[in-house]
Design goal:
By secondary structure, this protein is mainly beta. It has one helix at about 120-130, and strands at about 15, 20, 30, 50, 55-65, 70-80, 80-85, 140, 145-155, 165-170. A hairpin with a 6-residue loop joins strand 2 (about 20) and strand 3. The two termini are about 35 Å apart.
């Protein structure tokens, strides 16, 4: 567990490579070489600590009634970081996400994504693998969602001791 946990850190951390961006000369993702051996290696260079615990979270719940109708809802929210959706190497024979159209194409480009490759550029393939284990793959995963919604209608029956409700519920 020496490469999973750190003293004085929460249990829900990830140790990652420190992402430096795309090298404008080569178009390959670059990472910080902490031990200065000229290679990006585990565990020596995989030391950046990222806390994946929510900073805060909660919800807002309420019930609104009018005559025979009742509406219940719960909104849930969280401020947190997490890994982004894994992206396969640009140029592979797989579906690609739209944002990869902003990839590096020529020397001097300042792009957020590395050069396209069909699998023959080993440096790009290795860098792509390291990217998914780096701080570059961490993104804001905060959200607000409507978690529960319920609409209830009380049928107006004139029978003694008998009540009838029609309910419609949804949960996310």
């Amino acid at each position: 567990y020496s490469q999973q946990y750190r003293i004085d850190q929460p249990l829900n951390i990830n140790l990652l490579y420190n992402f430096k961006g795309v090298n404008p000369q080569t178009g390959i993702y670059a990472f910080e070489d902490l031990n200065n051996d000229g290679r990006i290696t585990f565990p020596d260079d995989k030391q950046a600590v990222v806390d994946l615990n929510p900073k805060y979270y909660g919800g807002i719940q309420n019930q609104i009634s009018y005559k025979n109708l009742t509406l219940d809802f719960l909104f849930q929210f969280s401020k947190q970081k997490n890994r982004s959706y894994p992206v396969s190497g640009a140029g592979q024979m797989l579906n690609q996400i739209d944002r990869l159209t902003d990839s590096w194409t020529q020397t001097g480009d300042n792009s957020p994504y590395q050069i396209y490759t069909t699998g023959y550029n080993n440096d790009a393939l290795n860098a792509d693998s390291l990217y998914s284990q780096s701080t570059g793959a961490i993104t804001d995963a905060s959200f607000v969602r409507l978690k529960n919604l319920s609409l209830t209608y009380d049928l107006p029956l004139s029978l003694k001791g008998l009540k009838c409700k029609i309910m419609l519920q949804g949960q996310n």
